[in-house]
Amino acid sequence: MSISSDEVRKVAHLARIEVSAEQLTTYAAELSTILELVAQLDSADTAQVPPLAHPIDASQRLRADAVAETDQRRRFQAIAPAVRDGLYLVPKVIE
Questions:
Q1: Cα distances (Å, whole numbers) of residue 60 to 54, 55, 63, 87
Q2: Is residue 19 part of a domain?
C-alpha cells in the first residue's frame, strides 16, 4: 500500500502537526514502507499458532501466601472514637 503526500498532509492537518513540503515526500515513503511490512506480516499463516498472553513463557517468583500478622482489628478499634459492627464511624461530609 502506498501513501501519497496529499494523504500525509491530510493526516498531519488532522493531528495538528506541522509538516514542511520537503518532509511530505520523506514521510510518505517511510509510511508506505511501514505499511508494506505490515502487509507482509498480515499475509503470514497463523492459523495453527495458539494465541499467547506474552511471548516469553515466564512466571513470577511469588512469596508464599502465608499469614504474616495476626488480626489486630479489636485492638485498633478499641482506641477509635466511634465503631459499630466492626466498622469505623466517621462524620458525614456530604449531605
A1: 13, 15, 10, 35
A2: yes
Q: Please say whether the dihedral angle defined by the alpha carbons of residues 68, 70, 75 and 76, taken in this order, is positive or negative.
A: positive
Looking at every residue in the chain, the average pLDDT score rounds to 90
Identify whether 14 is part of a domain: yes
Distance CA 65, CA 57 (A): 23
Three-class secondary structure of residue 37 per DSSP? helix
What integer pLDDT is reported at residue 76 of this predicted model?
95
Q: How many residues are there in the chain?
A: 95
The number of distinct structural domains making up the chain is: 1
Question: What is the per-residue pLDDT across 8-43, written as a single tens digit (0 to 9) for each?
Answer: 999 999 999 999 988 999 999 999 999 999 999 999
